[in-house]
Amino acid sequence: MKKLIPFLVVLSSALLRADFNSLNLGVDYRLRGISIGNNDMQKTTKDSLDYYSNSARAYMTAWLNEDVEASFRAQSIGIWGLEGANDPLLAHTRYPHADGTPWVEEAYVHLPNLFDKHLNFIIGRQPILIGDGMLVASDELGFDALRAQLRGPWHTELDVFTAKIAEALSSGKGDSDLKAAIFRAQQEDRHWELGFIQENNGSGGDYRLGISTHTATRVDRRFYDGRLFGDLKDAYYKMEVAMQSGQASLGPDGSKVKLKGLGERLELGAQKDTEKWGLFGVKALFAQGTGDDNGTANVDAAFRPTFAHRWDGLQRSGFGSHFAATLSDVYDPNAPFAAGSNGIPLGVSGVRTEGLGIFSTQKVFWTGSLDYYAYTAMESVTGLKNLGDEIDAKVTYRYTGFVTFNVGVSLFFPGNVYGNDASRVTCTSFETHVHF
Ligand SMILES: [Ca+2]
Ligand SMILES: [Ca+2]
């Protein structure tokens, strides 16, 4: 959304001189072929997970007049190559349908010019992303929300929203919602954000605590978040620290667990455009979320933002193309498409990722990248904390502005958390993205 707003401001001022009844239509189509050799990480079994994953997103936006924009986006998402739509792997995805049946991703009205152009108001099912999604990202699903952005003096903004959660997994009896207030300030090349985010989950569900899974009747989480983003000429830095607090009520006796925890993320990047050798860049990443000490039964210090960025279509998205780590969970070979899957054995919690990457863009249309990630668990009852390492090599080719091809190979080396029989996973993927 943040990127969209300057765009919308430019668009709206351009439209002041154009036809207000302008209609904008488009489609994004994406096809991925994925082959994961030794998906289960066990060398004693010969296995692979191979499938095609496709998605089509069609959108329509219209300025009804200079003060009102309406937007609608429908999505169809599905898998080819697994045993039909009833494949157990396709149960419990986060989408209303994952069998090709279209569903509404966005339907909202946007009023950008309220109160003498100081208030931007968005009502309806809409995309929401805070920062890099460490705490909140709608990940192409959309939140049913009311959002107000109040522009203040000296490049400041107050962004407030309240959303009702409609993920299939949390469609229990009680109410579930997500609220946030974020204050933003820009000071030369520094962008500051101070945020307060509250998750209220009254519909309960499975709850991991130490070495066991409980049933929660209610979970309330709060995050106090500080973020700094510096945009220099040929470099950038991003820092984010979030403190978790709150309470979980675990059934059936309603015992209370106090929530604590800390999430941190630091990213640095630099690039250089050379006349002779093309564009070269490097980046470094450090990210970690605290885990929980199994010895403290009524305290859970595992940092677990429910709505963190985790998905890109039906595939997980995070640090590493295959392992796709967040600060709290990773790719789960037993439930690769399931919302709420974790990928880390019980008794192990908190993920630290250290990453290094290089990339180069050649002749404008070709980009190649090589990334390395090391993953460590923050808490573990066995004392074994090595989650593994991953190497990703990727080549992207942009054919005109409308078609993009991607080929990637990832090697994941599981650590001792996954046992002595765990062995290398090889993931190859091919992706075509068409925009028209
Ligand atoms: Ca195997
Ligand atoms: Ca504990």
Main β-sheet description = 18 strands, antiparallel, barrel
Report the total helices: 2
CATH class: Mainly Beta
- C-alpha-based Rg, rounded: 22 Å
> Which structural class fits the helix and strand makeup?
mainly beta
The average pLDDT is 90
Total domain modules: 1
List low-pLDDT spans.
1-18
Number of strands: 23
CATH topology descriptor: Porin
Instruction: Please state the overall shape, judged from the principal axes of the Cα atoms.
Output: globular
Distinct small-molecule ligands in the complex: calcium ion
What portion of the residues fall into strands of 2 or more residues?
over 45%
Order of helix and strand elements from N to C terminus: HEEEEHEEEEEEEEEEEEEEEEEEE
Measured as a percent range, the helix fraction is: under 10%
CATH architecture annotation: Beta Barrel
